[in-house]
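Our platform keeps sequence and structure together, in a single record for each protein. Nothing more is needed to write down the fold, since each code stands for a local backbone conformation. An entry from our holdings is shown next, in its original layout:
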Amino acid sequence: MNKAIIALTLATSVGLSQAQASDEWAVGTSASTLGLGLEITKPINNQFNMRFGVNKYADTLSSEVNQVQYDATVSLQTIAFNTDWHPFIGGFTHGLRLTGGLMINNNEISGTAIPGKEVIIGGHDYTSELTGKDVSVNSKIGFKKIAPYLGFG
């Protein structure tokens, strides 16, 4: 994992927990498996917060293994609408929260493998003689657009 992402995660996790203690709007950054993010938090009262967040990450990977060229793209974009409940007021447990909300997923993973002259899929031979060019295999993984979110931390 990239050292810069780890450093950013550690630095921003402290900032987010501090930002939630305020009675005003708070803005924070994050780094997670969803990518780099920006969050806006508005306290409703001593026990409830509303949060809106956006996360984004994109990367590409190219590699050749056993004379097969592989190309992959990861594109992550998530929008979150959450409500935090802090069941304990005061003391070190005040930071403890239960979170519920919705996530809008614009996440996608796609890839291409170019084995060259021939590939066998499901027992069928596909050759470059049929297509007139090198054979390639394309894939795409998508996710449900809207997902519920439940968190504890």
User: Anything to note?
Assistant: The two ends are 23 Å apart (CA to CA). The chain has two helices and ten strands.
